Amino acid sequence: MTDTGTLWVVATPLGNTDDLSPRARDILTEADVILAEDTRRAGLLFKRLGLERHGRLISFFEHNEDKRLPRVLELLEEGTEVALISDAGTPLLSDPGFTLVRACRDHGFTVSPVPGPSAPVVALSASGLPPLPYTFLGFLPRKKSQTEKLLAAHGQTGATLVFFERKSRLATTLAIAHEALGDREFCVARELTKEYEEFIRGDLGSLGAMDLELRGELTVIIGPAGESGDTTEDAIQQLVEEESLAGGKPKEIARRVADRANGWTSKEVYAVMRK
Predict the structure, then answer these.
(1) What are the residue boundaries of the Tetrapyrrole methylase domain, all occurrences included (predicted)?
(2) Which of 101, 198, 224, 263 fits as disulfide partner to 190, beta carbons 3.0 to 4.6 Å?
(3) How are strands ordered across the β-sheet holding 160-165?
């Protein structure tokens, strides 16, 4: 009886081709089948890396993962060596593959990681924001209400938040984060490991003074709420009195107070106002 194959979960470079490990190079060269999120981009990657590919490329992305799954399991049963890659970085982190890995585990097939570049970890390591604990949120929801709910829920844990964002949505998302989390430090890591790599640091309360028209792949990091520097509740009450003199509806006043306070969201200020 033929031994079953192994599913190799292989990390590939984010940009700099020198970041491919020797072990990853060997496995990608020798694998019988390579599951790629985008076969065209995978082919270009192999060309840039100077790899002689032994196996065939099979597309494996979000919308065909369930359809491809039975065939991949058959291949592994037959003893085929299969490598899973994403467009860049470590597979499964906001990329397809979880369903496959879980199914392989359930069927008793060997799954072996081949570690390497990972955008969330790479960005966090050089951001200057607290590295532990941290929570990776992937891509945020498209709807504002869902994004607010997600950020608010994780923002109470004391963890640094890490997520991916599209350049067209960056300014809007950071504004939502300010409303949901209050004034916190953030960092946008752009074009990691590439020629134009850049880390942009700032505070959510000062977004208006920043140029957020950025190009390239973006990883966003938002630090936890400050502890010793948080505005006290007594100080919040004083700010509420000051802002009330300027007029406006209660929620508008709460928003203005949150803009001036440290470590408070408009919802938290509003709750204090209603006491």
Answers:
(1) 6-207
(2) 198
(3) 134-139, 160-165, 218-222, 185-190, 198-203
Contact criterion met (CB below 8 Å) for 114 and 84: no
- pLDDT of res. 228: 42
By 3-state DSSP, what share of the chain in percent is helix, strand and coil, each rounded to 5?
Answer: 45, 20, 35
> What is residue 186's three-state secondary structure?
strand
How confident is the model over 61-73, as a mean pLDDT? 93
Closest by CA to 164, choosing from 146, 134, 190, 185, is 190
What are the pLDDT digits (tens) for 135-157? 999 999 989 999 999 999 998 88
For domain 120-222, the CATH superfamily is: Tetrapyrrole methylase, C-terminal domain (3.30.950.10)
| 131, 159, 199 from 202: Cα distances, Å | 17, 18, 10
Q: What is the per-residue pLDDT for 1? A: 37
Please tell me the distance from the alpha carbon of residue 124 to that of residue 140, in angstroms, as a whole number: 18
Residue 266 has pLDDT above 90, yes or no: no
Hunting for tokens 């970041």 — which residue is that?
Answer: 19
Distance of CA 122 to the CA centre of its chain: 11
Which of 259, 218, 257 has the alpha carbon at shortest distance from 238? 257
Domain residue spans of the chain? 6-117, 120-222, 233-273
Both structure tokens of 227: 């502890």
Q: Which CATH class is domain 6-117?
A: alpha beta
Question: What is the pTM (predicted TM-score) of this model?
Answer: 0.78
